[in-house]
Write the structure tokens for this entry.
Amino acid sequence: MDFSNHDIADYYNQTQVHYKQWWKLANNQSVHYGLWEKDTRSFAEALQNTNRVMSQIAGIKPGEKILDAGCGVGGAAFYLSKNMDCEVVGITLSEKQLEMANQHKGELNTSHKVQFDLKDFSNTDYPDHSFDVIWACESSCYANPKSTFLNEVNRLLKPGGRLILADYFLTDEGEKDPNGWLKKWGDLWAISDFYKNSTLNSLIEENGLSIISNQDFSAQVQRSSKRMYCASILAAPFSECYNLFFNTSRFAKHHYRSAIYQFRSLMKQQWQYRIICAKIGT
């Protein structure tokens, strides 16, 4: 199924109440899997690990200007401004995410370094060569077609600029999708299709970028994937009963099922979680 920008915004607007509860958005300000390392003690720490690892792989330096393409409620932008002393512009399609990000911005001392806008990351109106880094954490999968995002990355990056991207990638087994788990997951999250690693590599090179790092972090997200699965099993009876008596919105109605599909398909090695960094030029 092809999803429009309006559909994607609806998904995040309708399900934000779920993320508030299970991701503790008021404290964590993040909507992604998180990376579990040997000494990681909590989900909140795993979420921060993603920001740290992506920053390290991208070689982010103080004073750089970063576009957070698909910024959610602003967690990465706040991390980068506070810990890396960077200027960050975050963009999202979701009005509710934008509202929450701006609310957090008003509460933090680094707010003068952070700006949030309601924009499509495949079609922004920022000037050419505006950013040192484009950051896309579990967001570029929403580009449809995928090439539109990479075209805009090429236009927006300064010479020598980098793209740092974390996302879900189909394996050979995932392309077969024998149980339909990936399609069902994508439909519930308003994702039109998932990347293939080879496809992204080709698109990156076609847009004048060179891959400098492409790493598999599937093992590090497995605990979060299982956490989502267990939560969905607990939520299922309540959700189904609620749906019987109340008019539930399109994406929120069966949102819990997506956690089941993403975990089962990960356990069958139908997708990988990869972090990729590419640089303009050679």
